[in-house]
């Protein structure tokens, strides 16, 4: 391998060598920086739709992502020089030869600019082979005996000792005598079952080389795929690498889910030169469509924009042929001068089809909730009365309104009545069924008395024995108890779901919890199988992909009859492509299935609501200290720290349990969190090793959904049945998690906690384990520190970005507008101020607020509204005009 070499064209250094094992070098502490870690976003469930979930359950390969952290390692080149390198390395053992592009960062430190290429060392030393055996738990005495045999036995020296021949040499070693035979079997077992990385690498050298760059998060999982699947992947990488740039082709042709490399990844691998002309043109156009949709929220782009688009490093040879290639391979859909990514077209089209199916169900078997019990419940609020009537009568209702207008109050009252009516109907049905069974039993007894003895013997064994009937009945009852019932309350984030459940008094779930449950269901029964009504709160946060997946699952596998969407159409839409709530609201308004609640029922937030209305009209808000809407001037960007310090010292955010800083930029959040951490907890947010530092008194939040181990008192005997039930609820295999930790808890993205205790427990074996006790003001949980930090993405939470805090609320909100930018518009300011229930502070420079309020959001090009406006309803007859 070559040592560091300069590339003059971009001032990069290509560093080649291998990673020095930990502990080999003196005074080299292990340093990991969690600030730049990849986010696996709750595993693979964030990007699987219903069809892909079904295929994954049927055995199709899923490229599950793996979280990678920035780490400081030591790389030794062929000249023996050791270099400190900071980057992400999926494989770190010294028998992996690597090559990675770096930039010099002072002294002998290098910072990687991407991911490494790997090759398995073809000529390892004996010491390296022995180190390999040690890693995979071969007994030290067996390693020493094997090493001695290698030196003295000629039969073991016939083949060169390397990873390719290692198993053969170990087998040959086993033939020496009876003792070595037993040792050989044990060694082979450990090598084959725990040393899979190396054996798999021998099967797929091309994937080993390019995989870390092409699909860095999914490289390792794919490396450990089944042998035949890995060979397919290696063949594609070697012979047709362009296919890896198109996920739909990998899905339809080779049955891989989630395998799609970016254009930049191919550039870093220098693989574009292997692309045929049409495929090379296509990947440039495809990359442009993806980036534009992701950046601006579109689900389609206009074809004329693609014909005008030029690329600095590539001249399109045949634009028409490239576009046709994308259509032919089910990557895009072209319709009336619009080019859509097929997956987004399908999501929106499936939502339209699902609404049609719901209406057809309503036409055949209408579910009318009796509204007589709601008389007088909503006082003089006519909007609430109409909204309740809509939910009672219509299969679909979209309700929009600002915080405090009573959206969840209406839902709570209507579905409490519906729940009571459902229980009455079920009780009546059970009584009728029991009456029919009694009549049948009486008739059977009369027939038995009339039948002859011979007839009775002839009929014996054909019916279900009495004991069996009782078992079936008990089984049916058990399944019913497992069901969550007919009404399913959901929200896109854990915090929003928690608030919805708290306000309604019913159990609420995140959308992804329901999807997880579907993926991991066992047998024919499913806990959400009895659902008749779906309520989705904070629908502006919901993406078309997530809703399409959930909606499709419930239509197919439950008894869904009603859909209720709650939210605020003025708020920010999902950061993912699409404009779900706005499209649903405006397309269904002409037929009277959408309603806006206009009356504010929070007297303390009247000015907040009035100012939110002004902001939505692109007008500046009215500041009034007596009515708790304040302006805090900051003249320069570098003064933010001092302004926040002054606010804290003056008691403006004295209680961090009821107040929340919100900012547009993550950079501003970091500054605020640093100031707040020193004010509330008297320490910095990071320690000397640049790792996040959490102590008692900190305000923290989870940024990922995860199952985290709970502390179990060793003196208390665990209850396996309850643990298994919890695992089942969270979508895990029965007992899988409980075997590992004894108990676990599901923490959701967006949940805010306060650290109230930090303890370390020593096990009987002498192993220490750190536990944090977290308090969300309603419960306290004691969780594994390392798990909640890595799997749950634990972060300090005195300041949150507006996108991550949307769906939550506090008594006092302090919004930092920040430097004016075209990316921040009136919807960001509107969403931020409506997070406050009682008091709002707007921290802004003189022109920043005005610029943001007067900036229009980018109009999102979507199909959903056009799909839905073609729904015509007349006397509950439905036609879809394609």
Automatic annotation (TrEMBL):
Q: Which Gene3D superfamilies match?
A: 2.30.30.940, P-loop containing nucleotide triphosphate hydrolases (3.40.50.300)
- Protein keywords: ATP-binding, Nucleotide-binding
State the InterPro entries in the record. Coronavir_polyprotein_1ab, P-loop_NTPase, UvrD-like_helicase_C, WHD_HELB
Q: GO: which molecular function terms?
A: ATP binding; DNA helicase activity
**KW Nucleotide-binding (keyword) present:** yes
Q: Which ranges are annotated Acidic residues under compositional bias?
A: 31-44
Bias (Basic and acidic residues): 428-448, 720-736
Q: Where is the DNA helicase B winged helix domain?
A: 233-341
Domain UvrD-like helicase C-terminal, residue spans: 796-843
- In terms of superkingdom, the source organism counts as Eukaryota
Q: Which residues form the signal peptide?
A: none
Residue span of region Disordered: 24-45, 428-475, 713-743
Query: Does the keyword section mention Transmembrane helix?
Result: no
Q: What is this protein called?
A: HELB protein
Q: Which organism is it from?
A: Branchiostoma lanceolatum
